[in-house]
Amino acid sequence: MKIVAFVVGSDGDVFPFIALGKEMQKRGHIFQIVAFECYRERIEKQGIVYGKLHGNPEEMMQKMLSDQEKGPGVLNAIKELLGKYPELYEDFKEPCQWADVIMYMQFGGLAYHFAEKLNKPCVRTFALPYDPTKLYSPLFPFIKRNSIRCKYSYVMSDVMMNWASLALVNNWRKRMKLRKWHLFRFYKKMNGKPILTLYQYSNALFPRDKTWKKHIYVTGEWNMEQEDEKEEQIDNKLKEFVMSGEPPLYIGFGSMISERVHELQNKFLEALEITGQRAVFVSAWTKFDRKKSLPNVFYTEFVPFTWLFHHVSAVIHHGGAGTLSLAVRAGKPNLILAFGGDQYFRGMQAYEAGVAPKPIYLPEEEITADDLVRQLREIEKEKYKVAAVKVAEQMENEHGCSRACDIIEEYFGAK
Question: Who is most buried in 23, 237, 308, 368, counting CB within 10 A?
Answer without folding.
Answer: 308
